[in-house]
Amino acid sequence: MKGLSIHLTDVCNSKCTFCIVDSPYMKQDTVMRRRISRFLHEHAGQDYEAVNLHGGEATIRKDFLEILDEIRELGYPTVFLQTNARKLARMAYAETVVGKGVSLFIVSLHGATAATQDGISLAPGSFDQAVQGIRNVKQLGASVRTNSVVCKDNYTELPEIVDLCMDLGADVVNISALHTSGTALRNFWDVTPRYDDIRPYVAEACDRAVARGVALRLEGFPYCGVPGYERFQIDWEDNKFKMLYRSFVMDDYEGHMDDFTRVKDARCGGCVFTDVCGGVYKEYAEMIGWDEFHPVTQRPADNPAPVS
Ligand code: SF4
């Protein structure tokens, strides 16, 4: 997959305690429509297979629907939307968004219950809205990839979160390691769980997805963070996104993430996964250290290549 990825807004209608964009602290948007339009025009007709939109919360931009129109007029084949799905709880709005070409909704679902999700988002009602939003777009024939970020407040219910995602008809279930920047860095000790603590819950969540035959992806974890589940790590070699982030353009988003947000240490040199593993988020390594991470010296026989 060769795609474009656009950060549409800094602001959000939720205030997640681990927001990497730091939206809860953004007073106003810095993202200019003319910069978005220029990026879309510059890359039109160059075989990009999809435009991935994200924020903040993209749907709260006043010109969000106009941007979808512009993407379609420029001939991009499809649109992916990363969203908290709160506005999609209104069926008429979900119909409009699907009608304007969004085929894949990547929906944040961080709790199996309203108490957990609303406690993380600091937005009462956000759980019910997300669940209804997923139901609506599935009913309209769109695909859904759920994304659940593992934090201190939800890791013990991760298997139940994955159960819920599958019950709602998610086509792909994504589990993400907490990226310790933005609001997550401000709240580091309140939101960041230890790998030793989350490991059994991530493993159980993976096992439940496998048992039901639902596609599962692990994102942002060092390969040794969840041993035995390496085959579920996303292989970014098959997915190249060129990203517009405010006024910066990153030719290879995931390569940038590996180079600037994650680190390895000397032990990684002797690890069989060192070529494909992105390492550990640098703030985690600095503040908690490397004691939980052990190089893998032999590739497990039942572990084929990661999935795209
Ligand atoms: S030891 Fe290093 S390269 Fe190996 S899986 Fe862990 S973090 Fe990745």
Automatic annotation (TrEMBL):
<dbReference type="GO" id="GO:0046872">
    <property type="term" value="F:metal ion binding"/>
</dbReference>
<dbReference type="GO" id="GO:0003824">
    <property type="term" value="F:catalytic activity"/>
</dbReference>
<dbReference type="InterPro" id="IPR050377">
    <property type="entry name" value="Radical_SAM_PqqE_MftC-like"/>
</dbReference>
<feature type="domain" description="Radical SAM core">
    <location>
        <begin position="1"/>
        <end position="222"/>
    </location>
</feature>
<dbReference type="InterPro" id="IPR058240">
    <property type="entry name" value="rSAM_sf"/>
</dbReference>
<protein>
    <recommendedName>
        <fullName>Radical SAM core domain-containing protein</fullName>
    </recommendedName>
</protein>
<keyword id="KW-0949">S-adenosyl-L-methionine</keyword>
<dbReference type="InterPro" id="IPR013785">
    <property type="entry name" value="Aldolase_TIM"/>
</dbReference>
<dbReference type="Pfam" id="PF04055">
    <property type="entry name" value="Radical_SAM"/>
</dbReference>
<dbReference type="GO" id="GO:0051536">
    <property type="term" value="F:iron-sulfur cluster binding"/>
</dbReference>
<dbReference type="InterPro" id="IPR007197">
    <property type="entry name" value="rSAM"/>
</dbReference>
<keyword id="KW-0408">Iron</keyword>
<keyword id="KW-0479">Metal-binding</keyword>
<keyword id="KW-0411">Iron-sulfur</keyword>
